[in-house]
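quick one, two chains, predict together pls
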Amino acid sequence: MKSTLAIGSVIFTISILSIPVVWSDSDFDWDKYKRKSSGVAAVSNPVYQEECGSCHMAYPPGLLPSRSWEKIMDHLDKHFDDNAELDPQTHQTISQLLTKNSADKSNYRRSQKFSRSISQNDIPLRITETPYFIREHNEIPKRMVSGNPKVQSFSQCNSCHLKAEKGSFNEHNINIPGYGRWDD
Amino acid sequence: MKKLILFLLAISVIPLSHVHAENRVVQNLFEQYASQGVTQPSAERGEKLWQQRFSATGKFSERSCTSCHTSNINKSGKHIRTNKVIKPMSPTENPKRLTNMKKVNKWFKRNCKWTFGRECSAQEKADILAYLSKSVMKQK
């Protein structure tokens, strides 16, 4: 009886001790779960910030699929009524960064929502044209955005989404200038 | 006493060397333009070009450097399309201006194409550079 108890307690102790070993098994991809955050990936790359962020907010790449970014990068000399040409090396750096973090390649939940909402045959060039974006903003009256001198356009994400550049579009971080918080 | 004088002398040199360092980029650019045949950069011509209006097709039918930078280079401008604030172009107001050769070339290329519909000539670039850097050159 005593020996059964002893053997039992040894087995019990070993099994308790082995839990972390089993959990840290390389088959178990912690990153996959850790990175599945609710927002989109933030890109703090200084080249991206400098080259794209000097004229407009450096949009997180996870807001458009890679095929959209490729098309945008192919026509930088006519970039939304502006010339945004880059030297070949910078062009390549930014293209790679955009593709790597694009909505269709991202693990982030909101990026995946953007990606899923777009039909396979579509190549939207504006984030504001994607079905997910339209759905998420359809209740917001025009006077708060285009009629609001402090916002002017849906393209200015960071006018209302206080943490847009950090990739967070959570409703707790919304402040519409002149109107305040927005709750769904 | 001698030490104090030496110290004061040393301090007085610091801001001068700063101005000189800023000008090196501008000087190098002038040398480049000179090698392309531009011997006389003119701040006056540069200012005229800065204010000149050009017609274009598309959303912004009348374009000028002032469309985004305003007609006063000592003041902040605003991107005509995105409204993003653009810091003053004058190096006296914004000492970081004209201190990075790569940046100067990048913006000359993009903005000449947008504003004039073509790249600027070496003469035009030299004139604009003379206009923008005028205040700094005077300090030398």
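The radius of gyration of chain B is 18 Å.
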